[in-house]
Write a structure and sequence with these properties.
Elements lengths: L1 E10 L2 E11 L4 E5 L6 H8 L7 E6 L2 E2 L5 H6 L2 E4 L11 H7 L7 H14 L1 H5 L10 H14 L4 E5 L7 H16 L3 E6 L2 H7 L2 E6 L2 E7 H6 L1 H7 L4
Helix pairs in contact: 3-6, 4-6
The chain binds adenosine-5'-triphosphate (ATP).
Length: 235
């Protein structure tokens, strides 16, 4: 459903993506792995229209979206959850979720989507009146993902959802991503935590200096000596 072909991104003087090609098929969780500065965030930003590529193409469900405006890309069902849980801290959990539905005109449909998020995330239902800023880090991440779900994604772009969270909470976030996928949403998951990501992903790509150096089924990547050494803490 997503096809990236030969993508190049330049920032002033920095060649951040160098002819990157990757794909996500319908129903897949695909992990995008790599160290700091490898180009993972840039890849997601180029897909969702936040940065303009200097070369290459991004196609979503057969349509070329390379130079489309971000809100139109979101409306097409490609929803980006950026790094750092950008929730509205002075609004309640419920209000945050409703804001995810700003493109949804049908109020009955909006209510249905918010209720579905509460089913997936009972903890958010318990805290629906609480201000976003008073939630724990893990809960804020869940709320950020929940808000994206209300938008109605076909493909969810997640940028480092495990960042700064304790292992137990990371496991809960990964379970949530798996549940969302089982529910019918495809996922492109950017992670520095390769071990957590490769547990739930079907396939993965490893990025170094803006280019893909390895890709394959998650089970093969977990065994790959280079991945074990560089990303899974092995020797
Ligand atoms: P991280 O996990 O640290 O976010 P990343 O793999 O997501 O790393 P990117 O943030 O995509 O990497 O950065 C790729 C390269 O582009 C890096 O060299 C970074 O310094 C550079 N870069 C990213 N954003 C900008 C920007 N707005 N202006 C200039 N250079 C940038």
């Amino acid at each position: 459903m997503l096809e990236i072909d030969g993508l190049d991104v330049h920032y002033d003087g920095v060649h951040a993506l160098r002819g990157l090609s990757l794909s996500v098929a319908e129903g897949e969780i695909v992990a995008l792995l790599g160290n700091n500065g490898a180009g993972k965030t840039t890849t997601l930003s180029a897909i969702s229209g936040l940065v303009r590529p200097s070369g290459g193409t991004v196609a979503f469900q057969g349509d070329d979206i390379t130079r489309r405006r971000p809100h139109r890309i979101t409306a097409a069902g490609l929803v980006h959850v950026p790094e750092g849980r950008k929730i509205f801290s002075t609004l309640s959990v419920h209000e945050n979720l409703q804001l995810g539905g700003y493109l949804v005109r049908d109020q009955v449909e909006l209510r249905r989507r918010v209720e579905r998020v509460y089913e997936l995330l009972p903890r958010m239902a318990e805290r629906r009146a609480q201000h976003g800023g008073t939630l724990s880090g893990g809960e804020q991440q869940m709320l950020a993902i929940g808000r994206a779900l209300v938008t109605g994604p076909k493909l969810l772009l997640l940028d480092e959802p495990s960042m700064g969270l304790a292992p137990l909470i990371v496991a809960q976030i990964m379970d949530l991503i798996r549940d969302i996928n089982t529910d019918g949403t495809s996922v492109l998951l950017v992670e520095q935590n390769a071990a957590a990501a490769l547990k739930i992903a079907h396939r993965g790509y490893v990025l170094e200096s803006g280019a893909c150096v390895l890709d394959g089924p998650a089970a093969s990547l977990r065994e790959e000596p280079k991945v074990v050494e560089a990303y899974l803490g092995g020797t």
